[in-house]
Amino acid sequence: MMPPRTVARTLGLLLSLGLLGLACHEEPVDCANGTCVCPAGQSCDIECAAPPCHVDCEPDSNCNSQCANGSCTCRESATCTFSCLAPPCHVICEGDHPQCDGACANGECTCGPDSRCDFVCDAPPCHANCGAGSSCSLQCPDGLNGNCSLDTCDGGAMSCPNGTTAVCGVPCPE
After folding, report:
1. What is the 3-state secondary structure (H, E, C) of 34-57?
2. Which residues pair with 76 in a beta bridge?
3. Radius of gyration of the CA atoms of the chain, in A
4. How far is CA 20 from the centre of its chain?
5. Per residue in 79-102, pLDDT tens?
6. If we measure between CA atoms, which residue out of 88, 91, 52, 89 comes closest to residue 74?
7. What is the DSSP string of 58-78?
């Protein structure tokens, strides 16, 4: 058995190197240089203190988080909102989500099967994919083009008249 002082030093080193995922328990958490976790069934607010920041929102969690130079993942049946502090940012909504929203930047947003997702492109290129049975939207402030597009959609993506939004399975915004 390691002495308590050695255990404390080891945990401190792992945290400072970003090798130990941080979990939140109903309180805001600052994520830095690693992966932070919102445990299953919890509500979490996770802010990025120092990139890279990857976030893993476990099943049935309610997660409001910042990504930076990394990926934010919303596990099955979680409700998530991700912002991007520093590109690249990738958003992965695995599936069966009541709502999974996020900002991609120099990356990709994925909406898994049977989900509802709204994505925005903070910095092109941004590409979104909408899984089977899902409804999605991608907002491209600089316009829909080869650098910002909704590439995969069951039934085909539709470009909206505003020229900045693509939708899949949902009406265009007014």
Report:
1. EEEEECCCCEEEEEEEEEEEEEEE
2. none
3. 17
4. 20
5. 999 999 999 999 999 999 999 999
6. 91
7. -TT-EEEEEEEEEEEEE-TT-
